[in-house]
Amino acid sequence: MTTINNMQQNAAAVSTSKESNTSNVTSKIASQKPTASNMRASQNAMIIEASLKVSVKAGDNPQGLLFRSSLESVYESIGGFQSKIDPDYQMPSMNDANNPFATPEGTAGVILGFSLGLYERFAASHKGEDEAEVAAKFIETIRGGFEKGYGEAVDILEALNVFDGNVKSEIQKTWDLVQKGYDDWLSDKLASFQKPETQPETKPADVTGDTKVSD
User: In this entry, which stretches build a coiled coil (predicted)?
Assistant: First the structure.
């Protein structure tokens, strides 16, 4: 939390520089072809820019940025999702007791909960296919979405000159936790599809026949 606290203490002094960096990112993205990915990246930059204007009060929340960026990309990878995030949305402060993104574990847990919760919807669009293959394809799809969103979040944090020290290590830890969560989910899912081995039927012993009784 040291890096975050330093960021908050120095926010008034560096906000102008950060806003300039973010404006450059936003302008660069705006000049690119208006694809869904570019539009989402532009929204991310605008949200961070708006947050910086009140950074003394609210503080920065790189984990919250990572969550929003990665989840939007995951939904986009599944299909049928369009962001409705208000560009003026303010991330909760890192010191907020109700902030769900205060730790890598918290952020990873929320990302995993939302993204893995899309499985039933994904499986419904692949009815009749092999269950194990569908599960593997699902993880491949949402993993790709997460990695894309992660990269976009990192690009913005780097443009703001805050992707270093504790922020960088905690963002990377979140990456590791999410990737492990996907691996564990798939492993458990594939195991659940395994049919138990059937034991050969045991026939009762033949007790018919003559029994001799000795005198």
Answer: none
